[in-house]
Amino acid sequence: MHAALRPRGAAGSGLLRLNAFGASWMGVLLMPVYIPFLHSRGLRTAEILDLQAIYSLAVMAFEIPTGLVCDLLGRRRTIILGACLNLAGLLGFAAAGRFATYAAVQLVLASGWSLVSGADVAMIYDVLDRSGADRDARRHALGTYTLAQVTGEAAAALAGGFVAACSLRAVGWLTAAEAVLPLALAFGLPEGARRREHALATVRAIPRASRDVLGAALPRLLFANWVVWGLSTFIAVWLLQPFWQQQEVGLRWFGLLWAATLLTVGVCSRLAPQLVRVAGPRASFLLLAILPVLGYGGMAAFTGVPGIAAGFLFYASRGLNGVVLREAFNHHVPSALRATFNSIGSGASRLGYAAAGPLIGLVIDHAGLRAALACLCATFLFLLVALGIPLARRLGSSPGPARAATPPGNDAAPGTR
């Protein structure tokens, strides 16, 4: 990142605090052994995927209202409330023992996640808007935030895998204890002033902003592809652990593998701005869209080390998506409604998983994991042709950020349009 573009002073301090929060928020010890943990509680793989479908439906239902809460009441208050609900949900998760109880806990966790989802990215843009940062600085800030998140995830994965090798029960309670840290850090996050008049104007602006943002072909295609390729990697997350189990990978290696996949996200997100500058937005997008197709195909076709290596392609795509498509879409969104639109995008991905998750579970139960992976490869290959190619045609092929028109009402800081 060029020194002239690096936020300094209050902006730099605010971004540092956000990065610390992001690292702690994503540092969930349980994640690398999530499926073995639930297996130890008597749940089948299909039931675990059903739980994720319930969670995704709940997130989808909560996303838009919680995005509005964030835009109306302020980012920091919303994140604090979300962190409180996350702590309560993880305590319930550690104590639960039946499918019905886990399903109820998922609702609490979903509400907490929905409140934070979109609010953190909107806060990053608020900080950068006040400092007059340009689009290159925004890409770097998003890449750095993603790197902070996955670094926290990776560190937690290493610790969680080590603890799980000793006691799966202990890792559940330690995950709940760790959730205190993001709650404490949330109180130190930056917050801009929110006025009632501004809040009412935000609500009134939603219909017009929706027409401006999603009514134009390029923003609509950016939104659709952001959702689809986010979904492609989200589905894969819940299939890697069963795949590793089929390859007879020892539980003590789960944490190391999980950490390695997350570091792949961090490295790719950090390199994404340079990739856009060198290869151009079209090539960068096509790369992130092709990688999940190759990942599903590779896992369906190969076993052992080649199949495990194919799983890393999803995380490379995730790292690129979080910068390339997210930044391009947010460039078209009015700053006052960024949390709302980011929540809509997250909710759409969750809705897609809620529909696909149970079907994938049925295919796994009746035809096996390899058949499910092959079906997913074919599905996302079709979506690449149906949605990815039309977007690629509209993106600039030359290196450097694409110049996109800013919709009416975008009150981003000068230099960001």
Description:
The chain is globular. The protein has 17 helices and no strands. Residues 1-5 and 398-417 have low confidence and may be disordered. The two termini are 19 Å apart. With 417 residues, the protein is an all-alpha fold. The chain has one domain (8-394): MFS general substrate transporter like domains (Growth Hormone, Chain: A, Up-down Bundle), CATH 1.20.1250.20.
The CATH homologous superfamily corresponds to MFS general substrate transporter like domains
| Helical coverage, percent range | over 70%
Q: Which ranges are low-confidence, i.e. pLDDT below 50, for 5 or more consecutive residues?
A: 1-5, 398-417
Largest sheet: none
Total number of domains: 1
Q: What's the overall geometry? A: globular
- Give the C-alpha Rg: 20 Å
CATH architecture: Up-down Bundle
Give the number of helices: 17
Structural class: mainly alpha
Give the H and E element order.
HHHHHHHHHHHHHHHHH
Query: Strand percentage, roughly?
Result: under 5%
Mean model confidence by pLDDT = 82
Find the count of extended strands (DSSP E, 2+ residues): 0
Query: Distance between the terminal alpha carbons, to the nearest Å?
Result: 19 Å
**The CATH top-level class label:** Mainly Alpha
The name CATH uses for the topology is Growth Hormone, Chain: A
Quick structural overview:
By secondary structure, the protein is mainly α.
Topology at a glance:
Blueprint (H helix, E strand, L loop, with lengths): L8 H18 L7 H7 L4 H29 L1 H21 L3 H18 L2 H13 L3 H32 L1 H11 L1 H7 L9 H19 L2 H30 L4 H29 L1 H21 L2 H7 L1 H19 L7 H30 L1 H26 L23
Helix pairs in contact: 1-6, 1-7, 1-9, 3-4, 3-5, 3-10, 3-16, 4-5, 4-6, 4-8, 4-9, 6-7, 6-16, 7-8, 7-12, 7-15, 11-13, 11-15, 11-16, 11-17, 12-13, 12-15, 13-14, 13-15, 13-17, 16-17
